[in-house]
Structure of Glycosyl transferase family 28 C-terminal domain-containing protein:
Amino acid sequence: MVAAESLVKAFADHGIKLSKIKATGIPIDPSFAVPKDRDLLRRQWNLNPKLPAILIMGGGLGMGPLGEVVKELASAGLPCQLVVVCGRNEQLRNKLLKMLPGLPGRVEVLGYVTNIQDLMAVCDLMVGKAGGLTSSEAMASGLPMFITDPIPGQEERNAEFLESVGAARLVRGQKDLLQQVKYYLNQPSLQKSMTEAARAIGRPKSAAAAVDVIEELIEKNTGESLRSIN
């Protein structure tokens, strides 16, 4: 089971039979497939309905240069609002909360959230890491990504793939990030194309697709369905 249809050929080129390769997507919470009321959720998250919302994340542990990213973007006078998820990094969260009074931009600082699917649904752009699960959730939400400091190896390859399909951009440093965000906010056509690219490869029903593949294999090899076994 692979993350995207475009990866099927790469696995086939390594000698794996096409019939054994299924593009299910990385399994994510089924709640990503549930339709969301953006206006209602924006009110619940205390967001301005008239301003684009940029989600800034560093994974569940709040890794990466989040403090510097927030300070740079919030001080630039951009026509947007920031939502920062610090994960379990309470030190970072407290640091950002102390910074807020001195920042001219609108910033919401959150800790660890259990309903990230709702938050991704109401935001227009994400700035953060290119971990497999986070990237899959963002794509399932139709949320374009600006990727910062990918970890060598897996995250670099994820960033290359997402950038190649037009759903993400790799940024290099704080100045590049600021310039790219400014350009993005001023280019509705770019916003539309990146959002459409994210939705095109997003698989909100990936978990169900993976179960279907497993059930098919069980039925083929045992003659029994997964449901009858349970």
